[in-house]
């Protein structure tokens, strides 16, 4: 490619709203442009990196036995009503209607579409089946930010697996887990797999998130150096199974009680209770040791989408599972208030309290606002459930000392079980002719977010430094003076030669000053730069490695052999 015609204008300054390094550099180096909040065009350079990422993902998905398909973004609202996610998904769901006033959504994920499609598979012999796609997702994020990190329209690889039993799902899940490890390694990321929380997607089993380690990550993860325990802090909070006792939840002065019938989304709750976004409560459901816990934790000062989503997740579980209906019923009547401490309740007791007629938030269909821990419930028992703290002993091995890291969620895998297959009729006849719902898993990778995460981890402030596997071009030839015939001829010959050899090469043939070319090249971050300047007269070029910053004057032939 000749840079004189490349659709990529470099910018000296990033727009003020670009706060993170990846966002600034991707804009400045001409990889992306914003069209509207959270909506981006991938310019040719950005598109090339995406294609590299996609190719790696495809290879690893294919190798893991997954089949590629492509599902529509426009999905009938009806399908989402069937899965009971239409309301519960909340405002993140983009809705639209056609000329006949039929309602549609723009898919934020594809469990509904794929599960309804699987209805056509009727025999257990056909399973297991895993499918995947790479495509556009739509989520009306409350706060699109950090460029590609949190888009409202973004690229995702999503995969869905269908097995006849849980053992099968365990196999598929671990195959996907390993494929994810290879993908992120090949992308050159520093990452970690952590225990996660099921959130809005619900599900009945294990779930892991893959976190790119980065100071700008929105998730905090607790890591034990002595064993392999690592968990998203939301999950780390609920790992202990100590006794927590609810007490005296009631009409204390200041704790206002609100009638809020039925299951509702966090958006509705916020409206009804007039809770400011930064006062959102988090709700988790944790099933373990034969018990079900409802865990309510105050949100951060920052609006945390994860936490909002957890609340919705609880509502969803309530619809799916009778044991947790009680938990969620309690959650529905739980505490909401501008208090800074985690609030935790053991659900068995809470439900008992509820049914024995204790008033206040212990009553179904009521919420409390302005609850004060210690006044409205016993604090001493809450400690066992509090958020894990840095420096604490690991809850799993009891040896290591937990430390915290920030992470960017780049991938997420779930054991879903029958949550969707039951609602949407994906079942097979087993060997005895009995109908059994398929056992599902789902597996996402944020393709466009991954691009941003790689950029965030690979730069030196001056510009991007692409890992070879993802770079838009392998070699950047800088022709120092387009007026100089010898230099021009040498650069053109080198360009042709490399292109012939199948090397992806970008030739800076612009009529620009050398300084500008160097600056832009550093900004763009192509792994190898070959400078064709005065030394071309002696058949020599300057060979520069972007990552190590090394420079060497070598013969043109030697330069060619180093990149082939
Ligand atoms: P987050 O916690 O960041 O909101 P999520 O848990 O809602 O993400 P999933 O539903 O697990 O996301 O989707 C699978 C993957 O898609 C995520 O792991 C992430 O890499 C990516 N992803 C999710 N939301 C966005 C977004 N708004 N922009 C870009 N990538 C996203
Ligand atoms: Mg989200
Ligand atoms: Mg998440
Ligand atoms: Mg997730």
From TrEMBL:
Entry text on domains: Consists of three domains: the N-terminal catalytic domain, the editing domain and the C-terminal anticodon-binding domain.
Chain ranges of the Aminoacyl-transfer RNA synthetases class-II family profile domain: 38-467
One annotated GO molecular function: proline-tRNA ligase activity
E.C. code: 6.1.1.15
Gene Ontology terms: cellular component: cytosol
PANTHER family noted in UniProt: MITOCHONDRIAL RIBOSOME PROTEIN L39/PROLYL-TRNA LIGASE FAMILY MEMBER (PTHR42753), PROLINE--TRNA LIGASE (PTHR42753:SF2)
Pfam families documented for this protein: HGTP_anticodon (PF03129), tRNA-synt_2b (PF00587), tRNA_edit (PF04073)
UniProt source species: Paenibacillus sonchi
Sorted UniProt keywords: Aminoacyl-tRNA synthetase, ATP-binding, Cytoplasm, Ligase, Nucleotide-binding, Protein biosynthesis
Assembly and oligomerization: Homodimer.
Family to which the UniProt record says this protein belongs: Belongs to the class-II aminoacyl-tRNA synthetase family. ProS type 1 subfamily.
Enzyme type, top EC level: ligase
Its biological purpose: Catalyzes the attachment of proline to tRNA(Pro) in a two-step reaction: proline is first activated by ATP to form Pro-AMP and then transferred to the acceptor end of tRNA(Pro). As ProRS can inadvertently accommodate and process non-cognate amino acids such as alanine and cysteine, to avoid such errors it has two additional distinct editing activities against alanine. One activity is designated as 'pretransfer' editing and involves the tRNA(Pro)-independent hydrolysis of activated Ala-AMP.
GO BP annotations listed: prolyl-tRNA aminoacylation
The keyword Signal is assigned to this record: no
Protein name, per record: Proline--tRNA ligase
Compartment list: Cytoplasm
Catalytic activity: tRNA(Pro) + L-proline + ATP = L-prolyl-tRNA(Pro) + AMP + diphosphate
């Amino acid at each position: 490619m000749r840079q004189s015609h490349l659709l990529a204008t470099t910018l000296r300054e990033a727009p003020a709203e670009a706060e993170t390094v990846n966002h600034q550099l991707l804009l400045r180096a001409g990889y992306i442009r914003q069209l509207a909040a959270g909506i981006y065009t991938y310019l040719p350079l950005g598109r090339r990196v995406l294609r590299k990422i996609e190719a790696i993902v495809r290879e690893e998905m294919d190798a893991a036995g997954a089949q590629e398909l492509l599902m529509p973004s426009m999905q009938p609202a009806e399908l989402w009503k069937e899965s009971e996610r239409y309301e519960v998904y909340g405002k993140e769901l983009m809705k639209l209607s056609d000329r006949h006033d039929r309602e549609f959504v723009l898919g934020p994920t594809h469990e509904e579409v794929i599960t309804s499609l699987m209805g056509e598979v009727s025999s257990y012999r056909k399973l297991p089946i895993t499918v995947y796609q790479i495509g556009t997702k739509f989520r009306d994020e409350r706060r699109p930010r950090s460029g590609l990190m949190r888009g409202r329209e973004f690229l995702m690889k999503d995969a869905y697996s269908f097995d006849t039993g849980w053992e099968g799902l365990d196999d598929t899940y671990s195959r996907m887990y390993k494929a994810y490890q290879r993908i992120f390694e090949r992308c050159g990321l520093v990452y970690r797999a952590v225990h996660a929380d099921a959130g809005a997607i619900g599900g009945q089993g294990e779930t892991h998130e893959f976190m790119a380690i980065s100071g700008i990550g929105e998730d905090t993860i607790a890591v034990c150096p002595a064993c392999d325990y690592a968990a998203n802090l939301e999950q780390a909070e609920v790992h202990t199974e100590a006794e927590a006792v609810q007490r005296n939840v009631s009409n204390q002065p200041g704790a206002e009680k609100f009638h809020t019938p039925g299951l509702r989304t966090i958006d509705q709750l916020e409206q009804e209770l007039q809770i400011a976004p930064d006062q959102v409560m988090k709700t988790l459901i944790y099933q373990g040791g034969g018990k079900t816990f409802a865990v309510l934790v105050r949100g951060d000062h920052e609006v945390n989408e994860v936490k909002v989503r957890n609340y919705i997740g609880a509502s969803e579980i309530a619809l799916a599972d009778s044991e947790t209906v009680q938990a969620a019923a309690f959650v529905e009547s739980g505490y909401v208030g501008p208090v800074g401490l985690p609030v935790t309740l053991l659900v068995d007791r809470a439900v008992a309290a509820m049914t024995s007629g204790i008033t206040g938030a212990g009553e179904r269909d009521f919420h409390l606002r302005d609850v004060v821990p210690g006044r409205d419930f016993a604090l001493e028992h809450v400690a066992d459930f509090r958020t894990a703290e840095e420096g604490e002993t690991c809850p799993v091995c009891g040896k290591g000392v937990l430390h915290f890291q920030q992470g960017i969620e780049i991938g997420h895998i779930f054991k879903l079980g029958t949550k969707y297959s039951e609602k949407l009729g994906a079942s097979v006849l087993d060997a005895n002719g009995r109908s059994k719902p398929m056992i599902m898993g789902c597996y996402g990778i944020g393709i466009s977010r991954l691009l941003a995460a790689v950029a965030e981890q690979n730069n030196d402030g001056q510009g991007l430094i692409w890992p070879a596997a993802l770079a838009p071009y392998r070699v950047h030839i800088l022709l120092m003076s387009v007026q100089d015939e010898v230099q021009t001829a040498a650069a053109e010959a080198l360009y042709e030669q490399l292109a012939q050899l199948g090397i992806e090469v970008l030739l800076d043939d612009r009529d620009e000053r050398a300084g500008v070319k160097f600056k832009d090249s550093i900004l763009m971050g192509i792994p190898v730069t070959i400078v064709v300047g005065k030394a071309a007269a002696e058949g020599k070029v300057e060979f520069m490695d972007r990552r190590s910053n090394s420079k060497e004057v070598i013969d043109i032939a030697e330069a060619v052999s180093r990149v082939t």
